[in-house]
Amino acid sequence: MRPFTYTGAKNTEEALQAASSNANAHYLGGGTNLIDLMKEDVERPDELINVASLGYKKVSSNEKGGLTLGGMLSNSETANHREVRTHFPLLSMAMLSAATGQLRNMATNGGNLLQRTRCPYFYETSMPCNKRAPGTGCGAKNGMNALHAIFGWSEACVAVHPSDMCVALAAIGATVEVRQSDGSPRMIEFIDFHRLPGDRPEKDTNLMPGELITAIHLPQPIFSKHYYYLKVRERSSYAFALVSVAAGLEIQGGRITKAGLAMGGVSHKPWKLIQVENYLSGKTPDQANFEAAAELAMKEARPLEGNKYKVEMGKKSIISALTQAYERKA
Amino acid sequence: MMNTLKASGVGASINRVEGRLKVRGMAKYATEFPVENKAFAQGINSTIAKGEIIAIDSSEAEGLDGVLAVITYKNAEKLNHLEEEMPLLATTTIAPVLQSAKVNYYGEYVGVVVAETFEQAQYAARLVKFEYKEDPDPTIRFDESKSKAYKPKGNSDYLRGDMEAGLAEADETLDATYITPIEHHHPMELHAIIASWENGKVTAYSSQQMVNESTIAIADTFQIPKKDVRVITPFVGGGFGSKLNTERHVILAIMASKLLGRPVQMTVTRQQMFTNTGMRQQNEQRMQLGAKMDGSLTALSHDTLSHTSTYQEYQEPCGMISKMLYQVPNNQITYRLIPMNFQTPFAMRAPGEATGSFALESAMDEMAWKLKMDPVDFRIKNDTQIDLGADKPFSSRLLIECLRIGADKFGWENRSMQPRSKQEGNWLIGYGVSAASRNSPYQESSSKVILELENEKVYATVQMDATDIGTGSYTIIAQTASEYLGVPVAQVTVELGDSRFPITPGSGGSWGAASYCNGARAACQNAIDTLKQNKNIGKDQDIPVAELLKQNKLKKYEAEGSAAPSEAFKKHSVFSFGANFSEVWVDKHTGMYRIKRMVNVASAGNILNPKTAYGQIIGGLTMGVGMVLSEQTRVEPNFGNFITRSLADYHVPVNLDMANIEVIFLPEEDKIANEMGVKGIGELGITSVAASVANAIFNATGKRMRHLPITPEKLIEAQVEPGVVA
Ligand SMILES: Cc1cc2nc3c(=O)[nH]c(=O)nc-3n(C[C@H](O)[C@H](O)[C@H](O)COP(=O)(O)OP(=O)(O)OC[C@H]3O[C@@H](n4cnc5c(N)ncnc54)[C@H](O)[C@@H]3O)c2cc1C
Ligand code: SF4
């Protein structure tokens, strides 16, 4: 590991101040991603500003009638919180499918949003990778890309965002609250938080330098009866998704009044299927409509050489997730 | 008296004698020895697959605080070198390193940094800059390099009868190819060493499976007398074959210690465990089978195409199992190897059988389906009590019993031959079976026993250079001494893993338990016999050992002993056998599957301790599940490095992946195997699990999965076999 200094900020102002005075500083949440990447020599901050002890560790009600999740609350405490389980079980289910108990205990909500891709080229400093070292080329595009994107990729980068939590947040719809360098808050709609790679794959999100994530606001309780998070992977835990689907349905009088649908493991950002959500709205929750939804979802898929399987897997996973969400006994 | 004996002698289900040390963190592994004044070494890896180093700039690293030395081929001491072209890699093979500018594969050691602290060494290692002249055409793609395959010298081709005639006379034939990927051993404990070179003598606290072999390899590499090398490895956190030989970090650490005149610790990182220890290579196994409608096999061939490095040969004996398992008159085994720009592969987790049985036992299932015959009956039909490949009778073979008893316990009669006939919601449910066998290569082994009389009690210390790689060696050796000395286990101390102790064959190939315990038995028996002889007491007279010492007027007595394979052993084929039954549920949408339960029956001779034996089998089954479910190392197709580079990408099974497992040991007395009737268990559990699960997946889905691991994406892409009602 490269030498670095550690700043134990006492309050938010100190943290923001430290970050704005050093462009090479990184905030430290649970460290489960950042420290790994530092050991691999991928991230090379010369200063870590600990933000995990600044507070922001509560789940509270917000004025929209929803819940606000503290940015520094651990993934475990969030997923197992009674209010979250009751009102946003889809989020809870997705979060509990991630990583392992130990990692979830350490990982913070803010850190989860900012975890970086697991593209193996990104991790190996001897390989070309535009995300890690802009201008060196994308090793995956013409190399091993079985685990990569089928939506929204660019010639510069075909990586996927690895988070499970974020897929559920995309399906539910959320707002991220950040503090800007001057201490003032800024709200970012969740679908605008992460970005597609374009020709700037080194930028994962639309966060400005030095901005600190303090909260995630959830809307009024939704999909608390009909929900499912389907994560396809080769072993039953401690593995990232090949493909995942967060599905939520509101059903009234035998019809879908609102659908929430997003996919993981398919794009540079959590892939919210807005068109499909709209398509399902007003339809009856049956196999034919679920199949049509899956077809629609995959219409624009552009698989790479090594990940054609994701199209079929994606379709079937959508059908399966919607079916299991619908059939779930409350 | 009788009771204490039964509670601790051979066959008793006692807890690990070293268990308390381990759970309290007091069992010392290689780098936990309190060696004073040690420095830390960190290896540097090449970043090209083939070529030459043309420039090295170590100035930045050398300028860092704490850095003591940067060693590359330019300043490394000259070591013994591999003599011939493509020599065989064996357990005593020398491990020369940093001897030239040549790069043979991506990740090969090109240098080592030594510093005052581990962190300094790691940081500095990243700052050494290498410039390469790359060879534009490294051999890194298996599929495109088949024309480079040669006939290895390590394993010869074999033919019995006439394959063509055998196939011609068959009613049904099968020609199928099975692929297993590159896999890595990944024991929990990383390869590690603390090395000291002092006055021309080497002391190595090094995590090794074979102590004596390691002293030979070190001595030969540095061209010093073997007696000047001491290897100490009392606890090993797993090896799975990767610690059988002496790897290059051992040599690097010793070299650095010699250069600096102080002890040097070196740990191979988890990432380096992919490139700087052995691995299992990719295998492509083509199976041809012919059978009559009555189920009798007429022909069986097993052709294996694998790869080795460009500088050494290792050939996994995949075809071995097809030579001996069934009654088949016409039999052909071949091997071909492609020299590729990767490190030399080496024995991994039941080498030969684990991969060979996947091919053979899948092919047997395919043939049973063609014949519309029950796969258990098909195997029983082709049983043989003679090892046709070796032309020797088996010392004992209870394969039929394993299959029958397993089928009964499992509820095999509820299986429908037609795939896809059992469904529950999303799930397609299937049953699978496979037969297993594993050679029991018992070997000569020695030990020393020290008896001490204290307050009417005899305390025994047994010493040998054996290793306990997590398997339970300490426990079963203590039980053996307890049995043959007639003292409780609590009065026995076992000391292992030091080259100063009597020589054993070490842990590997499932020979440890039989060899160690018979060695210990011999020493104990020698002690008792001599003590009796001295006093003219008849051999058969039953006198407690404490009484014997008293009569001899001795407070302390030492004896050595060794045991070796008998003439009868050499005239027989000695194997353990088993059968694995599994129930697998496949999600028809996503291709994810769950192994719901397994019944594993083993006939493995005398079970020394049911608890440790059970641990061995479930450990083996877990490795088998890893093979079928998820384990694979992927090669970057353009650069030739392994892009599977940590345990986050190299997926071993988690608890949730493991089934409900029932393990049954059949009572088996095999005195030809050795005097104690002990056979190998370690690798028996691994063998055939992959086939059992793959066969269950066929029964569930009608899809024939011939390429490991069987992942969701492969299952989604696979087609239902012709003839299966979808
Ligand atoms: C082996 C392994 C398996 C895993 N499996 C999964 C999985 O299956 N699914 C899944 O979703 N995740 C998985 N994870 C990832 C895990 O969820 C993330 O590592 C974790 O959520 C990151 O949170 P953290 O608090 O530890 O972040 P850190 O590592 O502390 O930080 C990550 C990044 O976020 C920044 N940061 C942290 N907090 C803030 C803040 N408040 N404001 C602004 N910036 C901030 C840091 O500067 C850093 O750049 C896995 C991780 C590992 C190591
Ligand atoms: S996909 Fe993105 S992260 Fe992966 S190598 Fe290409 S640029 Fe790097």
From TrEMBL, chain A:
InterPro entries: CO_DH_flav_C, CO_DH_flav_C_dom_sf, Diverse_Substr_Oxidored, FAD-bd_PCMH, FAD-bd_PCMH-like_sf, FAD-bd_PCMH_sub1, FAD-bd_PCMH_sub2, Mopterin_DH_FAD-bd. PROSITE patterns: FAD_PCMH. It comes from the Bacteria. SMART domains: CO_deh_flav_C (SM01092). Residues 1-223 form the FAD-binding PCMH-type domain. Keywords: FAD, Flavoprotein. Pfam families: CO_deh_flav_C, FAD_binding_5. SUPFAM superfamilies: CO dehydrogenase flavoprotein C-terminal domain-like, FAD-binding/transporter-associated domain-like. The keyword Flavoprotein applies. PANTHER family: OXIDOREDUCTASE, XANTHINE DEHYDROGENASE SUBUNIT C-RELATED. This is Xanthine dehydrogenase family protein subunit M. It comes from Cyclobacterium jeungdonense.
TrEMBL record, chain B:
It comes from the Bacteria. Signal peptide: none annotated. Residues 24-136 form the Aldehyde oxidase/xanthine dehydrogenase a/b hammerhead domain. The keyword Cell membrane does not apply. InterPro entries: Ald_Oxase/Xan_DH_a/b, Ald_Oxase/Xan_DH_a/b_sf, Ald_Oxase/xanthine_DH-like, AldOxase/xan_DH_MoCoBD1, AldOxase/xan_DH_MoCoBD2, AldOxase/xan_DH_Mopterin-bd_sf. PANTHER family: ALDEHYDE OXIDASE 1-RELATED, XANTHINE DEHYDROGENASE. This is Xanthine dehydrogenase family protein molybdopterin-binding subunit. The lineage of its organism: Bacteria, Pseudomonadati, Bacteroidota, Cytophagia, Cytophagales.
